[in-house]
Amino acid sequence: MHFKTVAIIGRYQDTGLDAPLRKLAATIRAAGCSVLLEAETAKNTGITDYTVVDYAQIGRQADLAVIMGGDGTMIGAARQLAASGVALVGINHGRLGFITDIPLHSATDALAEVIHGNFTTEERVMLEGRVTRGDETLFSGLALNDVVINRAGRGGMIEVRVEYDGNFMYSQRADGLIVATPTGSTAYSLSASGPVVDPTVSAILLVPVAPQTLSNRPIVLPDSGTLSLTVTALGRVESGASVHFDMQTWSDCQPGDRIEVRRARHTARFVHPSGYSFFATLRRKLYWNHMPQPSDEAE
Predict the structure, then answer these.
(1) Which CATH architecture does the domain made up of 5-125+267-298 adopt?
(2) Which residues contact 216 (CB under 8 A, 6 or more apart)?
(3) Gap between the Cα atoms of 161 and 298, Å rounded
(4) Where are the domains of the chain?
């Protein structure tokens, strides 16, 4: 038995989630594990058969957290549980699902395999950052996918001065800038023409969003340094800029504000069933192969 206590976290906004969650919990209990159910998941699905806990209790008590939902649910859980080191496994109840990689139809069998030790683990880099104005910290947060600064509302382009470890890189006018992890390379960064980066690479991506100068291209940097993004101008005097740490937002960024981003102290520990392949996920999600390959039949 590799995991004695397993927590379940669900995207409770989804209709019809209670049935697959109940099946999942029964599978976990049948494998000899204690089952914990995250409080909001329990409240919104009406499942009361298991011990109900908050994220802090999951961090103290659980060996494994099973997330059923989309990537957003997984990202939220990763931020909440990174400091505790609880392992995360994702079951896709959403649409695309790059990091909730277990299909719903095979969830029961895959989870049974994981509980009995047939799995691999990955440590996914996270970002931590803060928004400062002078000596005051206005906002701080963690991100598994990305930290994004972009223009607010219908304002014009913003201008940002970019430094890496105190070295000036460039000033850029654009709709925004994305600072992404390798995990986040398949999220917003990908839609802004950023590169796909293997999640085991120690790197940070800097990707412009609709830059004014087309020669401003994405760049991959070592994750050992600190990026500083200083807002030097806004498209309109009355408009502002927003900073997003995954799903957390600071919406009143003004000229002179600085956003500092670095690799976080903690990582997100992902668990995958044996046989998991990042490239198989890319083939499946990005339709890289029009004709099925022999290896895809087992995915």
Answers:
(1) 3-Layer(aba) Sandwich (3.40)
(2) 170, 172, 174, 208
(3) 48
(4) 5-125+267-298, 127-263
Residue located via tokens 């699902």 = 97
- Cβ neighbors of 164 (< 8 A, separation 6 or more) are 221, 225, 226, 227, 228
Indicate the residue type of 229. L
Question: For 14-111, where are the E strands, in sequence order?
Answer: 34-38, 51-53, 64-69, 87-92, 102-103
Nearest-Å Rg of the Cα atoms of the chain is 20
Return the structure tokens found at 167: 């070295």
| Per-residue pLDDT in tens (0 to 9) along the chain, 299 residues | 589 999 999 987 777 788 999 999 999 999 999 999 999 999 989 998 899 999 999 999 999 999 999 899 999 999 999 999 999 999 998 777 789 889 888 899 999 999 989 999 999 999 999 999 999 999 999 999 999 999 876 667 899 999 999 999 999 999 999 999 999 999 999 999 999 999 999 999 999 999 998 888 999 999 999 999 999 988 665 567 899 999 899 888 899 999 999 999 999 999 999 999 999 889 988 888 755 555 544 44
Residues designated catalytic: 71
Nearest to 250 by CA among 164, 172, 98, 148: 148
What tokens appear for 243 in the block? 């900073």
Q: Is 142 exposed, middle or buried (0-12, 13-18, 19+ CB in 10 A)?
A: buried
| Distance in angstroms (rounded) separating the CA atoms of residues 197 and 278 | 10
Nearest-10 Cα torsion for 290, 195, 246, 281: 30
With contact defined as beta carbons under 8 Å apart, do 122 and 199 qualify?
yes
Residue among 62, 69, 99, 100 nearest 84 (CA): 62
Q: Which two tokens stand for residue 154?
A: 């219908």
**Spatial distance between the Cα atoms of 279 and 256, rounded to a whole number of angstroms:** 42
Query: Is residue 276 within 8 Å of residue 88, measured between CB atoms?
Result: no
CATH class, domain 127-263, is mainly beta
